[in-house]
Write a structure and sequence with these properties.
Blueprint (H helix, E strand, L loop, with lengths): L11 E5 L5 E5 L3 H13 L10 E4 L1 H9 L1 H8 L3 E4 L2 H9 L10 H12 L4 E7 L2 H14 L3 E7 L8 H10 L4 E5 L4 H5 L1
Parallel strand pairs: 3-4, 5-6, 5-7
Antiparallel strand pairs: 1-2
Length: 189
Amino acid sequence: MVKIEPSPIKPKLRLPISRFISLEITKSTTEEASLMLTQTLQNPPINAAPLAIAFLNMYKYNVVCTNKEALAAFYSMNYIYTDGIALQLARCILKLPRFPRLSGTDLLPRFLQHHIPLHSKVFLLGGPPSLCTTVKSHFAKDFPRAKLVGSHHGYFTDLNNNQLIATINASEAELLLIGMGTPTQEIWL
């Protein structure tokens, strides 16, 4: 029997999008988020939907406020972490409680270097083809705990979308990292 530890994630707070709509923001430090990712990879819920995480900065906040598809995509995320000083300034203006800043560029390299369970399978999606080639050539050296099982550039069409999904599934990746820009990456996920 798999023992699932309680999540170290603190309660969420609501960040207003409009007068009637708000997003739940996860209050978490880099260490807490990294521990949650580690626990999820070590003990994945049986028959559960994949865990979806997004990082919200002021640009993304503005996109979510004006794009219904982006708003729906962010609503579907399990965890939304706040990133950037502009959201902290907005928090002060709106008199919201303090929440920690947690960026993907802080969390993901640290997680991949120190916390990811050994030999976890990672698939990278996004960026131009030349960047995929560069990242692939450095991945094993920079992140020896993880195993890169595939990558694909972020410039694909709906015509080859199903083929890409089949490729990702066939890779048996446990972690899919997407970098295609907002709102494309959130809507695609």
